[in-house]
Each structure stands twice: as C-alpha cells, then as structure tokens.
Write a structure and sequence with these properties.
Layout (H helix, E strand, L loop, with lengths): L1 E3 L6 E4 L4 H11 L5 H19 L5 E8 L2 E8 L3 E7 L6 H7 L4 E2 L1 E6 L6 E7 L7 E5 L2 E2 L3 H12 L4 E10 H10 L4 E8 L1 E2 L5 E2 L5 H6 L4
Helix pairs in contact: 1-2, 2-3, 4-5
Bound molecules: uracil.
Uracil (URA) binds next to helix 6.
Length: 217
Amino acid sequence: MTDAVADAGSDVTVLDDDPIAGVQLASLRDHTTTPEHFRHHAQRLGSILALRAIQGIPSERREVMSPLGAAAAIGPGATIVAVPVLRAGLGLLPGVHDVLPTALVGMIGLERDAETLQARRYYFKVPPLDGAWVLVLEPMLATGGSASDAVKALDAEGAEQVTVLSVVATQQGIDRITSENPGVRIVTAAIDERLDDNGYIVPGLGDFGDRLFGTPH
Ligand code: URA
C-alpha cells in the first residue's frame, strides 16, 4: 500500500500492492466481466475502500453485557455519511453499507455544462453534516473536476473529514482535488497512466456507470 503525500496537508492512499483489492480491480478492468459480476466486484471493492477510509475515526466507548458479564466496547464516535456521485458512485454504496451499516447517505448529481465545461450540480441532498466523516463515492477520478466540486459542497455543509473513495484515478485528478481542497483524503485502488482524448482513463476500465448498469456506450 502506498501512502503518497501529494502536497502539504493532503493524504492519498493507493492500494496498489494490496492483493485483496487487486483481485477485485482486475475483474473490474476485465472487458469480459458482465454487469452482474461488475456490480459484485464493485461492491467488494467498496467495502475494502471504506474500511481504509475510516481509519482514524474517533471512537466512542461503551459497555455491553455478554452472557458472562460486562465487557468494554467501542464504536464510531462520529456520524458517517456516504455520498455517491451519481450515477457511477452507486456501485460502491452496497459495499460501504456492508461494513458501515449505520452510514447515512447523501446524493450528488453532477453534469458537465456543454458550454463552460464546468461541473454543474443538478442534484444535492445530504443529511446534516456538522462533525460528520463523509465518504465521497466517485469511482473514476479522471480530471478530478466532479469529485473536487463534490468535496467543496460537502465541506461547505460542515463536514469534519471528507475522503474520496476511488477505483481508478489519474495523478492529474488527484493533484486537482488535493490542491483545491486542503485536508481532503483520497483512497484509490490504482493510479493509471493518462487520459485519452475523450476523457477516459487509460488503461482504466471503460465507463464505470455503463459497465455497472449495462447501458450501451
Ligand atoms: N469516467 C468513467 O466512467 N471512466 C473513465 O475512464 C473516466 C471517467
């Protein structure tokens, strides 16, 4: 696992030598993987990314009664909110809920304005975020524009910690998100070489949303 510090105050974790994440990523990349199996591997990888992203969350101590007596117990001491960026981010949500079942959910819809080429928010609904640990689910960090916009919006709502969960990123996307959002964290399964002329990550895995939902590209 690479813990790369992109610049002061930023925190980027790349799970590129984690074989458990790697096996899921390999299946997501494989062009023969069907949508049914793509959803399965996205779910598994969502769990792995979420467990890494939540490291360091404050804990809350309590007591639980076992059949033989009182035992000390701990749990998360902050609200956890998962925010998929529509629509690809929905693929990671079931896996996040598998390991963080009490996570609340917000949603962000972003589309690129054809004239300005800037991300435009067409949908934004989140629970109260004061003090929350927020996981932004954005599988493909290409230019980083959508994720960076999402992080800004969530920061403005009072989130304590914002972490972007990504499957495949580019260095360019990571640099944009970290330079525009001091304090943000990124956890990604891989950093790939480059973007092609259509904005796709190479080698990447293609269009995550299309492959997740079986829509023709
Ligand atoms: N979005 C995708 O789904 N795939 C890419 O390669 C880039 C952005």
